[in-house]
Amino acid sequence: MFFGDIKLFYLINHFRNTLLDSILPIFSIPTFIDFFYILVSFFLLIKYSLKKYLAILIFMILGFIVIDFSCGNVLKPIFKRERPFISISNIYYYSNKKFIYLEKPLQKKSSFSFPSCHASNSSFLSFFLSFFYPSLALILYPFFILVGWSRIYLGVHFPFDVLGGWIFGFIFAFIFYKICRRVLFEISAK
Question: Cα–Cα distances in Å, from 154 out to 11, 26, 53, 64, 99?
């Protein structure tokens, strides 16, 4: 493990605040995250026809499925990095809708930590949508940063897990954007 990664983890995880304790867990709830991106995707209708919007939506969903599967079923088993609550002591860990302080790592089975799928998925969706509608970046980028921050604050990921997820998400967003742009060009040509 990289020493700076653990140090940064403790800095973020130990920066406790009752407001953050109540808000940040929301940014790790998959249904909240999905609802946010579906809602934001409707803004594309301002700029694109319904036909083009549907094409973008299909690529967004396909990309999400590919990145989520790749993150959880390909990369995590390759890297096999344990989560903070299993590998280090003295952390705040969010479980069963409350924070607990762990003096010692938990002895329980868990999925692997690197990369963060929450971070890769939210990064993918944020970059993908903002490539099509750049002014949406003003709400999309802070959102994916909050999702990543929440994963560290809740004690389930190290900072490099989140950073790796963001990079992975950006790369896939760029690839799917380029492919989708070609399809949109074909739709425009008809």
Answer: 13, 11, 35, 23, 8
Neighbours of 47 (CB within 10 A): 13
Residue 165: CATH number of its domain:
1.20.144
* Burial group, residue 70, by CB count within 10 angstroms (0-12, 13-18, 19+): middle
> In 47-134, where do the E strands start and end?
91-95, 98-102
For residue 100, what are the domain limits?
3-189
Structural domains of the chain, count = 1
Residue with the two structure tokens 């897990």:
161
Mean pLDDT for the chain?
Answer: 94
Q: What is the pTM of this model?
A: 0.93
pLDDT digits (tens, 9 = 90+) for 88-106: 999 999 999 999 999 999 8
**How far apart, in whole angstroms, are the C-alpha atoms of residue 97 and residue 25?**
8
Looking up tokens 């490539």 gives 131
